[in-house]
Design goal:
binds NADP nicotinamide-adenine-dinucleotide phosphate; globular; Rossmann fold
Length: 347
């Protein structure tokens, strides 16, 4: 039922005290309006990409007011009419595959990476432009997003993909290793999201896709800090999904299982530690054994595209790890933990 149908009665002329029955009616109507519009947006809150007005405008993202007005003017129309996606960490693996997939569907792709000079020929497609963006360097994020906006006129979708893993017992991790893991997988994601949000809020549309992991829903030994970042990404995403829906911004989680990319090789920081060495060697052996059987990143790229285009507010999109979830949901908690112990820690 639309809340508009329950229109409030007008106050009597003269502005005198409102009779009790009418006052409680007004309170009931107000309560109904408040309830009905939370967390679902009212009609005027619904996304309307064509109606980017200057009302409720965000603070200037960075740079001068002049560049802000250029951004506003650009955000009301896209020069090519093509959808625009920004992807972080797109030099390899899931990010690179997603960039190619979106371009294959006719999207303009801002493929961001921390060292574009190292990957001059990573993309052949003319729809893909590379931009320098290191998610751990706060000062380069705003300017990179402004550059993308001034080149493409808008951002329809942001894919927060940049990430890596630390493998090692918590006891042996240095403060620096822990901090860098959080800087990259969590704080970087937050900063890029904060830089993009004013543009999406102004356009009253947009989709943010955070690449989480099976490790954002369940934990395995020796990945404690990686899991901490991905569990945090899950909580953050779930929370802002409600926060941003009234602005027509959709927020989603793509949760891959084991995927064959550079993640298992150069994107894992391995920390050895004598007391834990047996467990570390066993885990590395398991990862090594599994790596030959892992699927490539194509299905993840497809899932990211589906999450970007399905027009719904579905939160989670698991890819290639349904067996873990199935087992986790079927087994009682104690049995699930015994099972993981037998896989990782039993001799
Ligand atoms: N592969 C899996 O099994 C798996 C499973 C679940 C979730 N994931 C998640 O998927 C995402 C992508 O990983 P992947 O599997 O595609 O591994 P990958 O091939 O190693 O890609 C990781 C990407 O992140 C980038 N990156 C690292 N630190 C960065 C920083 N400070 N700023 C910007 N970019 C940075 C890397 O850039 P450089 O080239 O500069 O190093 C690289 O492009 C990660 O968030 C990971 O947690 C992967």
């Amino acid at each position: 039922m639309s809340p508009k149908k329950v229109a409030p009665k007008k106050e009597g002329a003269g502005g005198g005290p409102v009779p009790r029955r009418r006052r409680s009616g007004a309170i009931a109507w107000f309560a109904w309006r408040s309830w009905a519009s939370f967390p679902f947006p009212s009609a005027q809150d619904k996304p309307n990409p064509g109606k980017a007005t200057h009302e409720n405008k965000p603070p200037p993202p960075s740079g001068s007011h002049f560049s802000y007005w250029i951004i506003i003017m650009n955000s009301s129309h896209s020069s090519s009419g093509k959808k625009v996606v920004v992807i972080t960490g797109s030099s390899s693996g899931i990010g690179a595959e997603a960039a190619r997939y979106f371009a294959g569907q006719g999207w303009r792709v801002a493929a961001t990476m921390r060292h574009p000079e190292k990957y001059p020929r990573v993309f052949e497609d003319k729809l893909i432009t590379t931009f320098k963006l290191d998610v751990t360097e706060p000062d380069n994020i705003g300017p990179a997003i402004d550059k993308i906006i001034s080149e493409f006129g808008k951002i329809d979708v942001l894919v927060n993909n940049a990430g890596y893993g630390v493998l090692g017992p918590l006891e042996s991790l240095s403060d620096e290793q822990i901090r860098l893991q959080f800087e990259t997988n969590l704080f970087g994601l937050i900063r890029v999201t904060q830089a993009v949000l004013p543009h999406m809020r102004l356009a009253r549309s947009g989709t943010i896709i955070n690449i989480s992991s099976v490790g954002g829903r369940m934990a395995f030994p020796l990945f404690s800090v990686y899991h901490s970042t991905k569990f945090a990404v899950e909580g953050l995403t779930e929370s802002i999904r409600y926060e941003l829906k009234p602005f027509g911004i959709r927020v989603k989680l793509v949760e891959p299982g084991g995927i064959k990319t550079d993640f298992g090789t150069r994107s894992i920081t391995k920390v050895n530690s004598a007391p834990y060495q047996r467990m570390i060697d066993k885990t590395l052996g398991l990862l090594e054994k599994a790596s030959g059987r892992l699927p490539g990143p194509q299905a993840v790229a497809k899932t990211i595209f589906r999450a970007a285009t399905d027009q719904g507010y579905r939160l989670r999109y698991p890819v290639h790890h349904q067996p873990y979830f199935l087992l986790n949901s079927l087994l009682p908690d104690l049995l699930w933990r015994r099972f993981l112990e037998s896989v990782f820690t039993a001799s």
